[in-house]
Design a protein that fits this description.
This protein is an alpha/beta fold and about 180 residues long. It has a single domain, classed as Pyruvate-ferredoxin Oxidoreductase, domain 3 (3-Layer(aba) Sandwich). The chain contains 5 helices and 6 strands, in the order βαβββββαααα. The chain has a 6-stranded mixed sheet with strand order 2-3-1-4-5-6, covered by helices on one side. Helix 1 runs parallel beside helix 3. The chain is globular. It starts with 8 loop residues before the first strand and ends with a helix.
Length: about 180
């Protein structure tokens, strides 16, 4: 697929401050750039560093995006109930919304697919709830038709601090397995 033939892709990673949402966006931005996309990334967070609403957005296109902010989300990750209403009105009818049901009790409603997966529970089993974001990254990578998993792995390896690389790779692969479980169910 030539660069100009690549479809537009809008992604949002949302939840509470301190959940590593900016890291998710950096990983996918780097992976999309590696696949020849032009990428615009933006972020928004409340002044509290932990617990307040936080989100990171990506707009990717084969050419320079016409508008650098999200207007029609294709992929939405929600890791906390605080973020549910933040995307109201911009979720495409055919979008994929991935939630962590442990922290998101009332997901958004609409003509889009909501996938509830034990993201934080999986991270806790691996040793740290702080890697929930990387588990979610694995899920999104496995469900994506736009970004090959090996490109996401390479982006994670280049961004992850060396002392957390093994744990992050375990989390990424655990997320991939969660998504594969969906496909076979």
């Amino acid at each position: 697929m030539t660069t100009s033939n690549k479809k537009n892709l809008e992604m949002r990673f949302s939840g509470a401050g301190g959940q590593g949402l900016q890291l998710c966006a950096k990983i996918f931005s780097k992976a999309l750039i590696g696949e020849g996309y032009h990428v615009s990334m933006s972020q928004s967070y409340e002044p509290t560093s932990r617990g307040g609403l936080s989100r990171a957005d990506i707009v990717a296109s084969g050419d320079t995006p016409d508008y650098p902010l999200t207007t029609e989300l294709d992929v939405l990750l929600i890791l906390d109930q605080a973020a549910v209403n933040a995307s109201e009105g911009i979720i495409r009818d055919d979008a994929t919304v991935i939630i962590d049901p442990r922290r998101t009790k009332n997901p958004p409603q609409g003509n889009f697919k909501v996938i509830a997966l034990p993201l934080s529970e999986t991270a806790i089993k691996l040793g740290s709830e702080r890697i929930t974001n990387v588990v979610a990254t694995g899920v999104i990578a496995a469900l994506s038709h736009d970004i090959p998993l090996d490109i996401v792995e390479g982006a994670l390896k280049s961004i992850s601090p060396k002392k957390f690389l093994a744990l992050n790779m375990d989390a990424l692969h655990a997320g991939v397995e969660l998504a594969r479980g969906l496909k076979t169910a």
